[in-house]
Structure prediction request, 465 residues.
Amino acid sequence: MASLTVRQLDDTLKRLLRLRAARHGRSMEDEVRVILREAAEESDRAAADRSAPVATPRPATPRDGGPRILLIIGGGIAAYKSLDLIRRLQEHGARLRCILTTAALHFVTPLAVGAITGERAFTDLFDPQSEFDVGHIRLARDTDLIVVAPATADILAKMAGGHADDLATAVLLATARPILIAPAMNPRMWAAKATARNLAQLTADGIRVVGPNSGEMAERGEAGLGRMAEPHEIVAAAESILRRGAALAGKRIIVTSGPTHEPIDPVRYIANRSSGKQGHAIATAAAAAGAEVVLVSGPVNLPDPPGIVIVKVGTAQQMFDAVEAGLPADAAIFAAAVADWRSESASLSKIKKQPGRTPTLTLRENPDILSSVAHRASGRPRLVIGFAAETDDVIGNAQAKRIKKGCDWIVANDVSTDSGVMGGDMNTVHLVTASGVESWPAQAKDQVAHTLIERVAAALHGTKP
Ligand code: C5P
Prediction:
């Protein structure tokens, strides 16, 4: 059988093929397949009875109740594949809404996108009609997954930097839903250090990536790594996320995060070095997995994760009350570094410094939120998870703590000063359960959060994690 690649075609044929593929919203390879299939069907028909039935393509059938996908189409030549991508997602039952960036308008039209999705395509952050219809916050919220395809180098940079100067980036910044990006760019842009930095940031932020592939680029004479993943690959990646994304749908999760501040007087307080990064990442991952999340947070210097109910507290007692008010829940994850003690009698006015006299601070134990929730006779969440920040015998202490506190799991980590865990972005943890200890490799706190949430989902669904 003869073998021929697109690359071997002469330039005129390649140009015609490229135009025809772009017109139909297919890759050049797919276009060749369609042409060959049509030719084969034509000769079959001629050979057989002319009335022989012709195979009809599978219709695109968005399902009521099918997953909602917001497709953000970036401005790259690979945008021509977006129409095919929409149809393929629809064939899998997805309901599509689309945003076109300004640059994307050079490659696809809102009219074509609107015709295929049956919904108007959104383009402008300051379009009063679109704000009236749905608004960018609803676009960010009323979806199960956001797919960015093609994700250009520019979009990646804006996402990594938290920009929100157009509709696409504003939605991406405001969403709590999972995001899948399909990068597509010139191989040199893909290999650039800035792109690598941005991508590392995005993956650390929990954003999933499909592709890019290696091969011939749409631009003449360009080949290498940077070709957008094929629509069927993007669909497969989206489906896998949606399967996971629905993992905590209908579940309510309470998460505590950050330190507590225990006042000594109106200006002084007892605190600790917790940044809240791990707890906030867990709340974000749980929301991305479809859970209803209540995040009870002590004072932190972090942005509020979008789409999550946040109860901001100061003291351990306030945190305790907020957790009690947040119950019932399917799972409670206590990542906060709660102060063990508070001043027995916080002064209402500033304690004055007096020469030769050092005030004595009498401490009183704070309520143990984890232990109290884990020991509840009624209304105990099915899964109660504590954290153990230890400096010595991390695992041994965590095992003892699991029993003492009455919780199901303990996530133990080494917080000795040289570990860099307190306030840092990385974490090395051990998951201590009734059935043993699992040590996870050093990873970003977001990744720890995702893995933990996957385990929580598996436990709540009764499947072994
Ligand atoms: O006893 P220790 O502070 O080491 O226990 C750590 C775990 O207990 C963490 O999960 C923390 O959130 C929780 N804890 C709590 N209330 C306290 C003290 C700790 O919920 N007062």
Summary: The chain has two domains: 58-246, 249-343+363-460.
